Amino acid sequence: QSGFATRTWCVKSDVQIRDGFVEVRGKTISGVKNRGIGVVFRFQDANNYYTVRASANERNVALHKVVDGVRKTVVHSSDEIEIPDATWHTLRVEFSGIKSSVLLNGRVIFRIWDETFVHAGAVGLLTSSDSVTLFDDFVFGAH
Length: 143
What we know:
By secondary structure, this protein is mainly β. It has strands spanning 5-17, 20-30, 36-45, 48-55, 60-67, 70-76, 89-96, 99-104, 107-113, 121-129, 132-142. The model has no long low-confidence stretch (mean pLDDT 94).
């Protein structure tokens, strides 16, 4: 993905997962405002979904929800996390009921409980701002 947008996402709309996982390997290449690797899950429509992104320049991982088109941060990592550019990283979200676990490179970064989106939804990929990102090995499944 490359280009300029506030949030750029791509979803697999023919998939609907309520409880499951989404995972991708990503490598940030460039970006001044942001260099991020992200996933989308429980995507209801263009204005209602969860996202998780690992930001190389902010050195954190964050889970956001977009409700009626407005993005709100649910949680972000409290410690700075090394996410070097030009290096492949694996970002994974496991979700069941109101619980979601976020992992980066196999390490649990945080777990959250949020009741906003509990119905099945699509999964996909996300970047933001001017991030240029490579993605590979996009996998997902239901539990």
